[in-house]
What we know:
It is built from 15 helices and 10 strands. The longest helix is centred in the middle third of the chain and has 17 residues, at 125-141. Strands 3-1-2-4 form a 4-stranded mixed sheet. Strands 7-6-5-8 form a 4-stranded mixed sheet, with helices on both faces. The chain is an alpha/beta fold. It folds into 4 domains: 4-72, DNA Methylphosphotriester Repair Domain, CATH 3.40.10.10; 79-178, Homeodomain-like (Arc Repressor Mutant, subunit A), CATH 1.10.10.60; 185-254, 2-Layer Sandwich (Double Stranded RNA Binding Domain), CATH 3.30.160; 271-352, Arc Repressor Mutant, subunit A (Orthogonal Bundle). Helix content is 43%, strand content 13%.
Amino acid sequence: xxxxxxxxxxxxxxxxxxxxxxxxxxxxxxxxxxxxxxxxxxxxxxxxxxxxxxxxxxxxxxxxxxxxxxxxxxxxxxxxxxxxxxxxxxxxxxxxxxxxxxxxxxxxxxxxxxxxxxxxxxxxxxxxxxxxxxxxxxxxxxxxxxxxxxxxxxxxxxxxxxxxxxxxxxxxxxxxxxxxxxxxxxxxxxxxxxxxxxxxxxxxxxxxxxxxxxxxxxxxxxxxxxxxxxxxxxxxxxxxxxxxxxxxxxxxxxxxxxxxxxxxxxxxxxxxxxxxxxxxxxxxxxxxxxxxxxxxxxxxxxxxxxxxxxxxxxxxxxxxxxxxxxxxxxxxxxxxxxxxxxxxxxxxxxxxxxxxx
Length: 357
C-alpha cells in the first residue's frame, strides 16, 4: 500500500530514487508521470498515486511525453539471457527443442524461464518457436517443389499439426499459401463513414481487412494487392448475423458509442508484429503513447523504429488501434490512412473518454 504523504514529498522533491517505485497522476490534465518529472507541480488535490502504469491507465490517464514514465519500469534482470535463447531458437528451429533445455540455457528453472520469457518476448517459448518455423515455412514453400519436404525442412515432424493450425497462422493451408492464396475466399463490403469509405474484408474465421479509403475502387485495389490470389466476393444483403454484428461494432466505434472493439481477426504477422499489435489493443481508449513508450512496454526499448514499422504494416484500422501511437515530441507521426483521420480518431476518443472522478 502506498503512503500518499511520502509519495507527495517525493514528488515535490523530484526524487529520482523513487522513479519506478510509484507514479503520480494529474486528474486535471489526464497525464501520469514519474516522481522526478521536471514539469510544474500540480495542486495536491488534483493528484493520485499509483503503483504501476497499468493502474494509472485504467483510470484513463496517459503517459507523460516529457518524463516517459514507462521507461522507469524496472528491466527484467534475465533479459539478456532470454534474448540469447531467442537467438538460439532462431538458429535451431529445425531441431527438437525442449523446454527444460532452453531453461537450462537461460540458467533458470522451467517455471521461471517460461514466465520470464513471456514477460520479455510477449509470447511463450513454444509460440516463439512456432512463429520462427512458420516464417521459414513461408519462404520454403515458395521455392520447394514439395509441400511435405518444405514442412520437414523447417522442423515440423508432422504435417497434420501444421494443417490443423494453418488457417489461424498462414491465413490458409500450406499448399494454398504456396499457390499464392488460391481458393481462399474473402467476402468484402464497402460502407460510407464520417472518415471516408471503409472496406471490411473477412474470411470464415474473422476479419482480415479493415481500411479507410476515398473510393470503393481504390479500396478494392488495395484488397487485391494484399491478397493477390484469393477469391474475392462482394457481400450482398442480407449480411450474415455475425458480419452485421462486426459492421455495427465498427460503426458504433466511429460514432463514439463503443470504446472497445473486441472483434475476431484472421491476419498473418511476424511474432514481433503480433507483440506490438497485441499491446496496441491494451492502450486505454482516449489516450496515446509514443513509439518509444510502446517499445519499452514490450521489452524492446531500442526498437522504436521497428514499432513504427509494425504500426505502418497494420491492415486493421481501428481494430488494432495504431492511431494511438504518436512521436515522442507529441507530433502525430505517420498513419497509412492519412494524418487527418488519425487526428480525428484521437480527438474523438478523447471527447468520449469516461471521466475520472
